[in-house]
Amino acid sequence: MTASGGSGSTSVGSVRGATSSSEDDRPADQARPAPTEAELEANRKRARRRAKSRNWSLFLLFAGPNILLILAFIYYPLLSNMYYSTLDWRLGSPRATPVGLQNYVNFFTSSSGIEVWRVTGIFTAGAVLGSMILGLLIALVINKKIPGRTAARTAVFSPYVLSGVGVALVWNFIFDPNRGGLAHILGAFGISSPQWYLDEDWALFMVIIVYVWKNLGYCAVVFLAGLQSIPKDLLEAAIIDRAGATRRFFSVILPLLTPTVFFLFVTNIIFSMTNAFDILRTMTPTGHGTNTIIFEIYLQSFGAYQRAGYSAAIAVVLFFTLFLITAVQLRYVERKVHYA
Amino acid sequence: MRDIAPTQRLTKEQRRQRRRGTWADAFRRENLLDTILTGYLPILVALLIIVLPLAWMILSSFKPPSEIVTLNPTLLPQDPTLSNYSDVARRVPLLTVLGNSIYVTVIGSTIKVVLAITTAYALVFIRVPGANLIFLGILVALMVPPEVSMLPNFLTISALGGRDTLWGIILPGLGTAFGTFLLRQHFKALPKELFEAAELDGAGHFRKLFQIAVPVSLPAIATVALVTVVNEWNSFLWPLIIIDSPEKMTLPVGLNLLQSIETQTGSYGILMAGAVLVIVPMLIVFAALQRYIVAGLTQGAVK
């Protein structure tokens, strides 16, 4: 029975799982003359094995369809993308030439590939900072104890749930340099409207504004929850110490808000890299100046170029970028955020 | 943490009292200026920024082309007309497209919610070795944006004959990681005693799921359902790729088509009418059920 020590230690975790079946045996066990630990262990093992196979079929009945769907439409694409990414292949063409890692090399070294990184970087930075700063300002205001703030919270959040295509159509009209609402407002101040659609830099600025408009309510609500979790007595103590509003914000509120800031920072980076497609596509269909990484994946395979292999390579790069960001979040941020 | 939560929850009476307190406090003479300057004024500015574009959309959708191209636009339509809406219907098969969107949203969301419930139940209550590993696999899937799988899924669905069909829109999105994750966390927090009585009565997993777990989890399930509905209704990229003919389009894709047809300045009214059709239903759903939707969409940050 030298192995019993080993088997005992491995089953520590699973014994708890089997208690429901072994509990029934216990009264009978006590009536019998003291069964050895080994016999008990064998009994439990048998019961566990029987329960295990029954459990497996039930588990597969309940969870199987979902797991199959996830395997077929999330995991299989991840792997096949890696294969496609090594091909020089036009979508719909039967012929594909293996090119090794050339697609990756192109994406990281060609001027058009570097342009995608530049646009993605600017868009992400603008979208994340814009919606977080405005979201925090709104949250600070709504956090005041005044009537109507629940309604204000709801209204501010509402663009977040609206169709990106619909929102982009509305803003297309507003940004129209000749007839748009913004052109009229600027005109009232004697300023002529920038060429939002022709100038690539203005186009990028424009889609950032729209994305921030749609997204800041999310940041505001999350910040609001963070603000409301700050203990009241800390703020009251600061007031008694005659700390002004600015001092209170930077010395008490902001430090206690860091978990929220970290959380929003990471989720916003991920969202802005993945969720902006409908706005980008609807406002700037050709992607000149606004082809962020997600837009580029679409443009390369389903746009004019049909370079499916290159598109797959970018998709793989995007996945590993997101994986890295999430890993960093889990490693360094997660434990600072209060989840439950 | 869990034990503290109920005590933090306020009774209705307490909440009413607290609210009355804020009313009185906020409008006391010494606070009035502060309330208006640092409270209502910024809120008003924020609300204007949020609401004005939407108001502009709705009002413009009732304007005739002459009021759209004018150099002196008015906020309110001078000569309100429904012609923009009938123009939308003339360019795209509007009722069909609307029907497609509703069909895809309802069928897709229903299946996703059912799958999320059963998967989450299995992960929490049916003990098999490796369940945690499967859960980890689902968590990783949560991280993969659908855009990454777009090309291979396009090939898979094409091979299955799902191009330009409604089931082709629905199928690849059915595997649900978000709902499974959210409901698993919820089921794990349910008190074990709830199930013990049923177990003594010899209830199997089906009865435990449908007679105990589901009824006590309705708010969490509503949250998952509504977030799923929002996402399905707004979904754009995948339907854009897989659908070619207008009769099979969902609203966002139909609007994309509309935009590519209507390129003249005067047609903004028509485009606004289209935007109203995709935005207003969601605004109504959100206004009615915002508590669940906000909770679901801010999951992970707000508890």
Automatic annotation (TrEMBL), chain B:
Keyword entries, A-Z: Cell membrane, Membrane, Transmembrane, Transmembrane helix, Transport
Subcellular location: Cell membrane
Keyword Plastid: no
Keyword Glycoprotein on entry: no
Stored CDD domains: TM_PBP2 (cd06261)
Membrane topology: Multi-pass membrane protein
InterPro entries referenced in this protein's UniProt entry, alphabetically: MetI-like (IPR000515), MetI-like_sf (IPR035906)
Residue ranges of the TM segments: 37-59, 102-126, 133-154, 166-183, 209-230, 268-289
Ranges for domain ABC transmembrane type-1: 98-289
Family of this protein: Belongs to the binding-protein-dependent transport system permease family.
Protein name stated in the entry: Carbohydrate ABC transporter permease
Organism field: Nesterenkonia aethiopica
